[in-house]
User: Which sequence fits this backbone?
């Protein structure tokens, strides 16, 4: 019997490009849609034509976009890109100060016992100051994510007897991570808002796709080997606050 196959693809819905996982199964006779922390997932019969799938997604576009937007519109922390505030970081809070230093200085970040300091050019005002602060914050979160995610992925891969896969850290707002058919794992640096054990779960989830490119019982068995309490951690991901920049 043919096994289920899974691929990462996109659809154009109401002028928006929506990424989703297409899972084809020889046992399925109808189309089914679901949305979770990884985004949109489409279950289709093994021989379903792509045109038929695309038309079904267009017919359901209002529901799909509403659900995706609802997940993306969770309460955002009160944060001012000109002065600073508090951001979610590793399941806790990260105080951020945005200050001006000497004239002509390039935006830079530094960490001390009081939190994170973003230093910007004093001549940068209004939207220019916000853009400079946003750029500094993104660089900091990306750098922290790159140093944290790779070791977790490597550890999970080693537990499965696999070599360390390539990890790409990106700015993804609608999904925490993905694993493509080439075994490349992509993770959003916005995941740094989550607690360490939740980050470990997302990394393990994507590494498990190196064994099973689907969400079958076999896949979840692999996840369980890596993170026995994955159900608890997965549920907790729903409470992770989005970063407001």
Assistant:
């Amino acid at each position: 019997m043919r096994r289920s196959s899974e691929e990462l693809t996109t659809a154009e819905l109401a002028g928006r490009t929506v990424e989703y996982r297409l899972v084809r199964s020889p046992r399925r006779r109808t189309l089914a849609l679901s949305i979770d922390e990884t985004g949109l997932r489409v279950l289709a019969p093994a021989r379903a034509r792509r045109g038929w799938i695309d038309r079904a997604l267009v017919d359901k576009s209002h529901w799909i976009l509403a659900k995706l937007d609802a997940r993306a519109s969770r309460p955002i922390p009160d944060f001012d890109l000109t002065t600073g505030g508090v951001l979610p970081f590793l399941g806790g809070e990260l105080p951020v100060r945005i200050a001006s230093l000497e004239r002509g200085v390039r935006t830079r970040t530094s960490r001390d016992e009081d939190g994170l300091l973003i230093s910007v050019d004093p001549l940068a005002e209004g939207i220019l100051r916000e853009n400079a602060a946003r750029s500094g914050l993104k660089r900091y979160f990306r750098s922290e994510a790159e140093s944290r995610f790779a070791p977790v992925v490597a550890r999970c891969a080693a537990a499965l007897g696999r070599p360390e896969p390539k990890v790409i850290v990106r700015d993804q707002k609608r999904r925490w991570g993905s694993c493509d058919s080439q075994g490349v794992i992509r993770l959003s640096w916005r995941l740094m808002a989550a607690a360490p054990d939740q980050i470990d779960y997302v990394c393990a989830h994507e590494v498990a796709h190196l064994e099973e490119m689907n969400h079958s019982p076999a896949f979840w068995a692999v996840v369980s080997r890596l993170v026995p309490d994955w159900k608890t951690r997965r549920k907790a991901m729903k409470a992770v606050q989005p970063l407001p920049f």
Observations:
- The two ends are 48 Å apart (CA to CA).
- Residues 5-72 form one domain.
